[in-house]
Amino acid sequence: MPTTYRLPYILHEPSEETEDMYMGEVPLLPGCRAWGETPELALEYLESVAEGFILSYKKRGKPLPLEITRTGEIVVSA
Predict the structure, then answer these.
(1) What sign for the dihedral angle of Cα 30, 10, 36, 54?
(2) Domain containing 27: what range?
(3) CATH of the domain at 45
(4) From first to last of its 78 residues, what are the pLDDT tens digits of the chain?
C-alpha cells in the first residue's frame, strides 16, 4: 500500500521569472517544480512531479527528507 505524504507547496503567479506561467514548487523536495497555464494545471503537474521525486528517492534507496516523513496536518477553525 502506498504511503500518503502531505507536502506543502508554494504557487507563484505568472511573471518573467516563471516564464509567464503559474509555477508550483514543493520546498521540501529541492528542485521539485512544475509550470502550467492555470493554477489548477500547475498543481496537477506538480503532484505528478512530486510523486516522481519520491519514487526516485525510494528506488535509489535514498532517505526522504525528515520534514516529509515527520509532518502532519491539523485543522483549526477560529
Answers:
(1) positive
(2) 10-69
(3) 3.30.160.250
(4) 677 888 889 999 999 998 899 999 999 999 999 999 999 999 999 999 999 999 999 999 998 888 887 655 555 556
What Rg do the C-alpha atoms of the chain give, in angstroms? 14
Report the predicted TM-score, pTM, of the whole model to 2 decimal places.
Answer: 0.81
| Domain-embedded: residue 78 | no
Q: With helix as H, strand as E and coil as C, how does the chain read?
A: CCCCCCCCCEEECCCCCCCCCEEEECCCCCCCEEEECCHHHHHHHHHHHHHHHHHHHHHCCCCCCHHHHCCCCCCCCC
